[in-house]
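Figure 6 in text form: structure in, sequence out.
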């Protein structure tokens, strides 16, 4: 089977849904729960879930420091929802001891659109995604409050950035894995290929 080997952090979240979208986008998805598995991938997806819980699990599974090192070394990573939070340099509304991987020069606000009952769907024009607007599912979603000069905003809801890219890092505040549309995953897989990481 050809295509880059893309890991999915399999501690919490929509692992199967991401795997399905990655397969459709031409990648070979694999579950990542340990550092030895992380070392074998060309790129990584950080799925949604509860960001503080995922952060604690990263410590339990001894993945936090290997992930930070991999991101610093240029591993392409795509974070959706909680994954966006984990890739941020700082979080508004988070716990002061919340572990972050970092890498994206952004400050995000947790639950920016409200609680679970305030979850919603929208159609977004996403830079780099051809075709009709992307159907985006927002579930207790963050948004980007501040972004550094190196961060490219790819999509917004009202004025709030909800999709950003910085070098090999991509993040969405929404869950593209839930809609059956693999175009955002394809954007990431293509970036892995173009980075030279894809085997």
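Output sequence:
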């Amino acid at each position: 089977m050809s295509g880059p080997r893309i890991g999915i952090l399999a501690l919490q979240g929509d692992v199967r849904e991401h795997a399905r979208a990655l397969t459709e986008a031409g990648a070979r998805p694999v579950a990542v729960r340990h550092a030895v598995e992380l070392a074998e991938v060309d790129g990584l997806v950080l799925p949604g879930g509860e960001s503080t819980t995922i952060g604690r699990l990263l410590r339990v599974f001894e993945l936090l420091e290997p992930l930070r090192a991999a991101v610093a070394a240029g591993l392409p990573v795509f974070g959706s929802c909680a994954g966006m939070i984990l890739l941020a340099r700082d979080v508004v509304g988070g716990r002061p001891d919340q572990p972050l991987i970092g890498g994206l020069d952004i400050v995000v606000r947790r639950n920016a659109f409200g609680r679970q009952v305030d979850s919603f769907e929208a159609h977004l024009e996403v830079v780099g995604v051809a075709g009709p607007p992307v159907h985006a599912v927002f579930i207790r979603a963050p948004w980007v409050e501040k972004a550094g000069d190196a961060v490219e905003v790819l999509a917004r809801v009202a004025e709030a950035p909800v999709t950003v890219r910085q070098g090999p890092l991509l993040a969405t505040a929404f869950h593209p894995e839930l809609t059956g549309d693999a175009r955002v995953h394809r954007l990431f897989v293509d970036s892995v290929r173009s980075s030279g990481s894809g085997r």
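Caption detail: The chain has a mean pLDDT of 93.
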